[in-house]
Design goal:
The complex is a heterodimer of chains A (117) and B (110).
Chain A (H helix, E strand, L loop, with lengths): L2 E5 L2 E3 L5 E8 L8 E6 L5 E7 L6 E3 L7 E6 L4 E6 L8 E9 L2 E5 L3 E5 L2
Parallel strand pairs in A: 2-11
Antiparallel strand pairs in A: 1-3, 3-8, 4-5, 4-9, 5-6, 7-8, 9-10, 9-11
Chain B lengths: L3 E3 L2 E4 L5 E7 L11 E5 L6 E5 L3 E2 L7 E6 L2 E6 L9 E7 L5 E3 L3 E5 L1
Parallel strand pairs in B: 2-11
Antiparallel strand pairs in B: 1-3, 3-8, 4-5, 4-9, 5-6, 7-8, 9-10, 9-11
Classes of the chains: A mainly beta (117), B mainly beta (110).
């Protein structure tokens, strides 16, 4: 069964850092682009960042550039999102997702990040 | 900045047909934007319905279909059922590796 399981969410103060992880199973992780998508409370979905199979290409939305870094470890079938200089507006459920044909085809269950003092 | 637009809400009767649309604040949607559609019920992760304009994701019933209608992408749901009541999001590929989601449509079946 194809599965994505996120971890690492929690409560952090403004200006703090957090590292999210995503464990992939049931498919050849190294063959796919991977994505982070987030959803603020009561709001819609936002594409945050994605990374090529070998990590050689990375794209991020403007709102997180310079603060968030997406990375992967194909040997561990894992995707990461390092989040620094966190702001209240980064509060959201963060979904790990598999990229296919310019879209998402598999979603994780999400991990919640709350930025508050 | 280009915004992806969707109807905020829509309602359909059980057994009826509804078409949700996905447009651009400036310009027309074409297959080059690789439109995709997602269904989300409260408290759950999204589920992929359609990708690459009109390809159904695995396990999605053929009651759901995607197309380009005029200058927008469209998601048609036929034979609406109670459990189709959800939020529906479209996404358009904007280049540079990034897609942008629309604001979502809340579909009510009543």
């Amino acid at each position: 069964e194809v599965q994505l399981v996120e971890s690492g969410g929690g409560l952090v103060q403004p200006g703090g850092s957090l590292r999210l992880s995503c464990a992939a199973s049931g498919f050849t992780f190294s063959s796919y682009w991977m994505i982070w998508v987030r959803q603020a409370p009561g709001k819609g979905l936002e594409w945050v960042a994605n990374i090529k199979q070998d990590g050689s290409e990375i794209y991020c939305v403007d709102s997180v550039k310079g603060r968030f870094t997406i990375s992967r470890d194909n040997a561990k079938n894992s995707l990461y999102l390092q989040m620094n200089s966190l702001r209240a507006e980064d509060t959201a459920v963060y979904y790990c997702a598999r990229h296919y044909s310019y879209s998402v085809d598999v979603w994780g269950l999400g991990t919640t990040v709350t930025v508050s003092s | 900045q280009t915004v992806v637009t969707q109807e905020p809400s829509f309602s359909v009767s059980p057994g009826g047909t509804v078409t949700l649309t996905c447009g651009l604040s400036s310009g027309s949607v074409s297959t080059s934007y690789y439109p995709s559609w997602y269904q989300q019920t409260p408290g759950q992760a999204p589920r992929t319905l359609i990708y690459n304009t009109n390809t159904r994701s695995s396990g999605v019933p053929d009651r759901f279909s995607g197309s380009i209608l005029g200058n927008k992408a469209a998601l048609a749901i036929t034979g609406a059922q109670a459990d189709d009541e959800s939020d529906y999001y479209c996404a358009l590929y904007m280049g540079s590796g990034i897609s942008v989601f629309g604001g979502g449509t809340k579909l009510t079946v009543l």
